[in-house]
Design goal:
heterodimer, A: about 325 residues, alpha+beta, 8-stranded antiparallel sheet, globular, B: about 400 residues, 10-stranded mixed sheet, 6-stranded parallel sheet
Chain lengths: ~325, ~400
């Protein structure tokens, strides 16, 4: 879903800023992970000319597509499908990159007391958001907090229950943005703006006017964020609903779609993956706002039918501009 | 071809669209049995090497135990994709490690001869990327050495192992297509072929494709793969080629054209029309064989047959799955349709689930397991590469070149 306002060139210029010299920027877009990714790379201040920067952008497109293929639960040949189809109790060996992602997800699950949980994919299927067949036994309790275990020595993951279905949908976009951020540093590209579905956003360096990349959150006109090597994630309850008109954000604690007053969560963090995960967690558990704020992010929670109130903003880093006042 | 129980088939077809299978079960393409896990090394973990790595990890009873690249950054990226594999910075150190039974060679084209000969000498099974080499002399050397190699040696001309291409070839050889008329192919992909690097020396080493002394341009790198499809289908090789090329978009002072066109001519007057460009992606990559009864279009993951209005209708066609392309209706060629129909997944089965390199690797592993010879031998690949080399010369000289198969 498209929550951030991303106009034609992916950045909405402030009225008092200079227009972008878009003829020097390198632009790419692709459909992956159920959304549209857009990339803008600026070759200025880097060791690369425009042609080399174009090649770097192509590498990023390949990277996104590669992880889409690896993480998709809709593809029979993806590594995630292979994990989900393996018999419970059987360790499945994965590569280092994926293992690190799994460890990150495990850690984030602990940090958010289970509000973020990649095993919530199980609930997505049960509640009709995944047209994937599986074993139906909803009567036996399912412990999603301990749905799988990881073995660092053998680099394996073992599901503990046949019904468990891993789904990286709440973190995948942010994860690839982090990989891209790493490559941007390796290539010494200083300025770039990349987003996935307007809800996972990386503002790397500055816009051409040397100001941070500025993003306005759609439907929340008073909320702007300034991103300078910071990522922003938006989690929104509105959008996909199942046949019973219930939303797609699952509460792993109850096993049901989350039902609270939260309409939208905006979360920033240096890591796009963590921003994604925290935004999802706060959609389920808005009471975690103070704890997660301590972990280096700025947070704004919008409740239904309202602009974000000061009580629902945590912004020690000063990422948000135009602070809301009563 | 497998007999189809039409009543059973129709009972599982959905709605008004039905499809038909005249091929063996797709799982037949993936069955092999190894007595022990096969330890495979990958030599060269650039873009192609990493793709090979990814597909090897999908194959049962295959373990990637080692990889090699002289570029530290690439080696590091490759190692992250195969847990448990050991990294080496030279081919010699990998070969002497005792950690592999087989190797996939995906180094730059101009280094294939040096690497391949060492691997043959080591007695390993070898999967060698194509084009085989960038010069005819290297092709001959590789071809001769492969003849006395102990292991199973396969060339990575992917069309021959592709299930859709195998299915379509069966049709090509029947009255469905009838008299061959002409052939054409294209490779369109907008990309600049540059491999970026912060370091000038490394950049020079990585960008061999843009150096005419180390590579054979689009005709060599892509044309070889696609020309081979025609060789395989027709059983013939062209004898002359005319070419031309220019830089249409990537004006960075490159010496290798980003857009080319070739006409390859056979002894009997038949032709292949080929064009390739790095400046536009429309249409992608495909081959077409035109016949007096039908045309077959092959798009690597998909295949279609377009019947002429006056071509006789065969019974199975009535129930075939079709796709509309503007004014043309194509019968979809679905590999493994029988099994998919039994599972009620026929509509999902349009298009292969894996990329072409997967099937080529699987074919090689299957041959190692004792199931016959690889779909593409080194000698066939050498002839295909010779065609690619000649086509590139024609492009660079804007001339007609005789295709030389001497020594092959």
């Amino acid at each position: 879903m498209h929550s951030a306002s991303i106009p034609k060139r992916c950045v909405q210029p402030r009225p008092d800023s200079q227009p972008l010299r878009t003829n020097e920027l390198v632009h790419r877009s692709l459909n992956a992970m159920g959304c549209r990714f857009e990339l803008i790379l600026d070759p200025n201040d880097s060791p690369h000319d425009r042609f080399s920067t174009e090649a770097i952008a192509d590498e990023f497109v390949d990277l996104i597509q590669d992880w889409h293929d690896r993480l998709s639960v809709f593809t029979s040949t993806s590594i995630v499908t292979r994990i989900n189809m393996a018999p419970a109790g059987l360790p499945v060996r994965v590569d280092r990159d994926l293992f690190e992602l799994l460890r990150l997800c495990d850690r984030l699950c602990e940090e958010t007391e289970g509000a973020f949980n990649i095993a919530a994919g199980t609930l997505m299927r049960i509640h009709g958001f995944r047209d994937i067949s599986g074993i139906d036994d909803e009567h036996t309790p399912l412990d999603l907090r301990h749905a799988f275990s990881l073995n660092k020595e053998s680099m394996t993951i073992t599901r503990h229950d046949e019904r468990v279905m891993l789904d990286f949908g709440a973190i995948a976009k942010g994860f690839v943005l982090d990989l891209i951020a790493h490559e941007l540093r390796e290539y010494q590209i200083k300025h770039a703006f990349i987003h996935g579905g307007s809800s996972s956003i990386l503002g790397f360096g500055n816009q051409e006017d040397m100001h941070p990349w500025r993003v306005m959150v759609a439907d929340t006109p008073s909320l702007h964020a300034q991103l300078n090597s910071i990522s922003l994630a938006i989690s929104e309850h509105a959008g996909r609903v199942n046949a019973e008109d219930r939303g797609h954000i699952m509460d792993p604690r109850t096993g049901q779609p989350a039902e609270n007053q939260v309409e939208r969560v905006v979360c920033t963090h240096p890591s796009a993956a963590i921003a994604d995960a925290y935004a999802t967690a706060l959609s389920v558990r808005p009471d975690l706002i103070d704890r997660l704020h301590e972990h280096g992010c700025s947070i704004a929670i919008v409740t239904k039918n309202a602009e974000p109130k000061p009580a629902w903003i945590r912004d020690r880093l000063g990422i948000f501009s135009h602070p809301i006042s009563d | 071809m497998t007999e189809v129980d039409r009543r059973t088939f129709l009972s599982s077809a959905a709605g008004t669209v039905a499809a038909m299978a005249l091929v063996p079960n797709l799982s037949a393409f993936s069955s092999y049995s190894l007595t022990a896990p096969l330890r495979v090394g990958v030599i060269g973990v650039g873009r192609q090497g990493r793709e090979i790595l990814g597909e090897l990890t999908k194959l049962p009873d295959v373990e990637v135990t080692a990889m090699c690249d002289s570029d530290a950054r690439r080696l590091s990226a490759g190692l992250r994709r195969a847990s448990g594999a050991e990294g080496f910075d030279t081919v010699d150190s990998l070969l002497s490690s005792g950690k592999v039974d087989a190797v996939a060679v995906a180094t730059s084209t101009h280094t294939h001869k040096e690497v391949a000969l060492k691997c043959f000498e080591a007695g390993l099974h070898v999967y060698l990327e194509c084009p085989l080499a960038h010069t005819l002399d290297d092709c001959i050397a590789i071809s001769e050495a492969a003849r006395s190699a102990k292991g199973v040696i396969a060339a990575a001309l992917q069309g021959r192992a592709n299930p859709v291409y195998q299915l379509a070839r069966g049709f090509y050889k029947t009255d469905s297509v009838r008299d061959p008329v002409s052939m054409r192919a294209q490779h369109h992909q907008k990309t600049n072929w540059i491999t970026p690097s912060n370091d000038a020396a490394r950049r020079e080493a990585l960008n061999w494709k843009l150096d005419p002394s180390r590579a054979n341009g689009l005709a060599g790198e892509w044309g070889t793969q696609q020309f081979d499809v025609f060789h395989w289908y027709t059983g013939k090789y062209p004898v002359k080629v005319f070419g031309s090329g220019s830089v249409r978009h990537w004006r960075d002072d490159r010496k290798v054209p980003d857009t080319i066109a070739c006409t390859l001519m056979f002894e009997d007057g038949q032709t292949i029309h080929y064009d390739a460009t790095l400046a536009n992606s429309y249409g992608g990559t495909y081959e077409v064989l035109f016949g007096s009864n039908a045309a077959i279009k092959l798009g690597w993951s998909h295949g279609w047959m377009f019947k002429e209005a006056d071509a006789p209708t065969q019974g199975w066609e009535v129930y075939a799955n079709r796709q509309q392309f503007h004014n043309d209706e194509g019968i979809t060629l679905i590999a493994g349709a029988t099994k998919l129909a039994e599972q009620g997944k026929l509509k999902e089965g349009i298009g292969l689930p894996h990329p072409g390199v997967y099937y080529a690797l699987e074919d090689w592993i299957s041959a190692i397991a004792g199931n016959g010879s690889p779909a593409c031998s080194i000698s066939e690949a050498a002839r295909a590469t010779a065609v690619g080399i000649a086509a590139n010369k024609a492009v660079m000289d804007r001339s007609i070149v005789d295709i030389d198969f001497a020594g092959l």
